[in-house]
Design a protein that fits this description.
By secondary structure, this protein is of the alpha/beta class. It has 3 domains: 87 residues, Periplasmic binding protein-like II (D-Maltodextrin-Binding Protein, domain 2), CATH 3.40.190; 80 residues, D-Maltodextrin-Binding Protein, domain 2; 79 residues, ACT domain (Alpha-Beta Plaits, 2-Layer Sandwich). Helices cover 28% and strands 30% of the residues. Strands 1, 2, 3, 4, 5 and 11 form a 6-stranded mixed sheet that branches. It has a 5-stranded mixed sheet with strand order 8-7-9-6-10. It has a 4-stranded antiparallel sheet with strand order 13-14-12-15, with no helix packed on it.
């Protein structure tokens, strides 16, 4: 059976993404992004799921740093709705709940609901929302609740007391699936890459102009902080066409004279859920 790795505990949002992307695979948890990427690079798992960015908080820094050096290719993406729920171990009287467990982001992203419905409860921080849900369900204590996903509640057998308690209803995390082999297909409508340009005036403008001259649309452009691995100005790009597109091939051939380094991260089919309204532009 195909193995796909993900970060965190079973029931996490990464586990949910892995289940959506590869429902028939064996899903294997890893404690850190470094361990997860290493497992995919070594072949311990066939693929890995990585959270790349969030519509509310932006890019995931730990993953963003790993992308520069990883020997893996992006082969797909998923825009996952991060919708928090209030979970208990069973049917519960709301007024009797005295403690709520979650990750700090879970509390922050559900602060309006908590202020309105549970202003006096104690907040107990856990390493992730899945761990919070598991502890509450396994405790059997109906005076406790957790903020987490409906997926986690189903995984651990909890009861969803309230759905959709997030402050925003458009909190979306973009996950990508990576593997050791790049994929090519005429249906691909997105590619991702990294480029480095010289540290001279106009270097980036000249490089980006090449894409425009070949009618290649850039849907995302982000800069890296200077480091040992990125000593020159370094940029991550999402491009609205697959690697087999003739205009992208021509652009990459011409751009070589304007950049010092490039790394192709993969070609894949974009998630149909992309929309300007959720912060993820269509190709």
């Amino acid at each position: 059976m195909t193995k796909i790795g993900y970060l965190g505990q079973p029931g996490s949002y990464s586990h949910q993404a892995a289940s959506r992307l590869r429902p028939e695979a064996e899903h294997v948890p890893y404690p850190s992004f470094e361990d997860l990427v290493a497992a995919a690079e070594s072949g311990e798992v066939t693929e890995a799921v990585l959270p790349l960015e969030n519509s509310e908080s932006g890019r995931i820094p730990d993953v963003h740093r790993l992308v520069v050096g990883m020997e893996l290719f992006i082969t797909g993406e998923l825009l996952l709705d991060v919708s928090h729920c209030l979970v208990t171990c069973g049917p519960t009287v709301e007024a009797e709940i005295h403690s709520i467990f979650s990750h700090p982001q879970g509390f922050l992203q559900s602060s309006h609901f908590l202020k309105d419905r549970f202003p006096e409860t104690t907040h107990k921080t856990r390493s992730d929302t899945a761990t919070a849900v598991r502890e509450v369900v396994e405790s059997g204590d109906r005076h406790l609740a957790a903020i987490g996903s409906e997926f986690a509640a189903q995984h651990y057998g909890g009861t969803v007391l309230h759905k959709g308690i997030s402050n925003r209803d458009d909190n979306i995390t973009r996950f990508v699936i990576v593997s050791r082999e790049a994929q090519t297909d005429p249906s691909h409508d997105m590619s991702s890459l990294i480029i480095q340009v010289g540290h001279e005036p106009g270097s980036l403008v000249k490089a980006l102009a090449v894409f425009g001259s070949h009618d290649v649309n850039i849907t995302k452009l982000e800069t890296y902080m200077i480091s040992e691995r990125t000593e020159l100005p370094t940029f991550y790009l999402d491009i609205g066409c697959g690697s087999e597109a003739e205009n992208l091939i021509a652009a990459m051939r011409e751009i070589e004279q304007h950049i010092s380094y490039s790394k192709f991260l993969g070609s894949y089919r974009s998630d149909p859920a992309r929309s300007g309204r959720n912060g993820f532009l269509k190709p």
